[in-house]
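Question thread 4412

I'm putting together a teaching handout and wanted feedback from people who do this every day. The idea is simple: show students a protein as raw sequence, then show them the structure tokens that encode its fold, then repeat with a second protein so they can compare. Below is the first pair exactly as I plan to print it.
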Amino acid sequence: MVGRPRSEVARKAILRAALDLCSRDGYQGVTMKGIAEAAGSGRQTVYRWWQTKAQVLLEGLTEIVTEEIEPTPAGGDAEADLVAFLRQTFAFANGVAGQVVVGLMADAQSDPELAADLREKIIGPRRRALRSVLERGALPAGVNPELAVDLIFGAMWYRLLNRHAAVNEELADEIAGLLARMR
């Protein structure tokens, strides 16, 4: 990187400002200018470190929001662990994390680099975590774990994108109950 080194305080303020703006105004309402103003930084500083709002929000999501996610539950009861994991995931999906990821997913449709970063930093780790929970006994015998992950997250994203039904604790309970009945 050319120029002065990053100030960690300024960097965190920019990331937090971007997330706060997304929470308040939605992904489409976030601008680099708005991020700089909200963080009390110059636009040049923001642009020196990130080229797009997607990059700022992805970094904010991976560094700030995912720090708040508790470790994958491993309490010994496979169904209870699955319910706990899904409830936590769905709660985050209903907050700023969901707004950011929905916006990033939309932008990623025309940006292969962003799509790869999103898969590596957000989608992949959450898929692996869910698969781990499922493979501890919540998955019916003979069911492909990757397909089960697709079905579960597919239901979540379909509901988030179409807003036809809630992504909540009830959905978490219904999914876990459905898998339990299949065993």
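The second pair follows. I'd like the answer to focus on this one:
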Amino acid sequence: MSTASATTTARERARRELTAEILSAARRQLAEVGAAALSVRAVARELGLASSAVYRYFATRDDLLTALIVEAYDSAGAAVEAAARPTAPGRTPRERFTAACTALRSWALEHPHEYALVHGSPVPGYRGDSRTTAAGSRAPLALLHVLADADPAPRRPVSAALAEQAARVTAAAGDGPAGRAAPEVVVAGARAWTALLGLVSSEVFGQLANTFDPADAFAAATVEALADDLGL
């Protein structure tokens, strides 16, 4: 390896390492003050850096926030995708669906601040972009893949307005089962996804306290009921 190549590689490695340190410090800020109060200056102060040094990596607070959101969505999406895969011959769509739902809940309980970042109150003034949209689609599309693979797939009739909206989902999903799913399947998947988020959010944000708490049995029963409703 040439001296120039070695220098470039070392510089890239140093950049990756500092980027990771910045994101780690920003996640700690999320836990302490929440997304709305996230501050590049505070992150820099924690790392012993000048704010200008952090701004070379993330030009604005929103750029840093976007990186955290994409990271959170990708982490949750990877967990759900892994659980939803037909990893063994004969694994049923119902088994894949319940495993995927359980994976999202487990991820949320392990990463409550990251879950709150992407599924809690919107950050005032912040707008996502194509990166956050793509990352945020991973988990729900994994569930939609399972439903599209089911035989028979969910077939409750939908209105013309819902069919038009479902077409947006399949257009964005691209190739694969989700991109070819019928409108009825897409709408059923959206119902299941929003119900799942309601369950997980209720637990993560403490709304089940003094009732179904701990929520293991309630969550398992709810996921099984969702599978029943979908005909899996």
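Top answer:
Good format. For the second protein you could add a caption like this: The radius of gyration is 21 Å. Residues 69-229 form a domain with the Tetracycline Repressor; domain 2 fold (CATH 1.10.357.10).
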